[in-house]
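Folded chain entry —
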Amino acid sequence: MKLTRLSYYLLALTTACFLGSCGSSSKDSSQNADEFKQAEESLKDQIQDVVYNIPSPSEIPYLLQQTGAEFNQSLLNDRKKVDQYLTRNDKAALNLGVYAADIGYLSSYDKTQEAIDYLNSAKKLADNLGIIGSFDGDVLKQFEANISNKDSLASLLNKSVQKTDKYLKDDSRNKLAALMITGSFIEGLSISTGLIKTYPKDLLKDDQRNLVLTPLMRVILEQEKSVDELVKMLSTVEQSDPISTIQADLTALQASYRALNIDEQIKNNRSDMVLSDKNLIEITKIVEKMRKGIIE
């Protein structure tokens, strides 16, 4: 059921990042045009590489479902908060990404009626951003018609995200595209860390508890490269708020991942290495801070 990655999502960034260098004077216009073309082609390749490594809205939720983790409704962003995001495009884009991840989570656990309710909230945000056809009435009808088919629901969500992708690219809304994909990723990571944090501490001994939680912890640890790619992606966007704040938090998140040094320990065949939720305390704190900034 793993959905197609949001590849080519941010090709619109290729234009905006270099507009400042074009047209500084008519005298340099020819040279600048050549530089623009070269830079554009180079950045296209970079962005394709970046986006390929960032999970789609359904990927992390699907991985969580595969671990056998129980569904936790409290980890979702309340869909009724949608109206408070309509006054600012940056909030609308971030939380369109959040709701896309929530829809993926709900669909992965066969909570299809709730997923449809969340689709209605996503539609409000998409309409507010001028995105036509991504989460419209036809999509909702198709969701209802395929309510018992998880794979069909995944495919429908994928198509909706692809339509959003196309609009953002065609309209050169590079900042909003970056914010949407960031919101989706952080929500997936927030659900993952939340499942571990809320797992009862008095049911099992620590070693048994860690054994149960290991698959979930691995899902989180596997996102280190995606964090790196997000940092790269956002560095190509104008560094005004909320981008600059998110970028600072992601840099702190990078440092927390580096401090764990899990890959190196695995390479060195550390047979005594045991994953513990204590390893993830700092990552969880940063993700909670970022998510709070996004949804409030």
In short: The radius of gyration is 20 Å. The CA atoms of residues 104 and 157 lie 8 Å apart. The chain has one domain: 33-295. Residues 1-27, 39-48 have pLDDT under 50 and may be disordered.
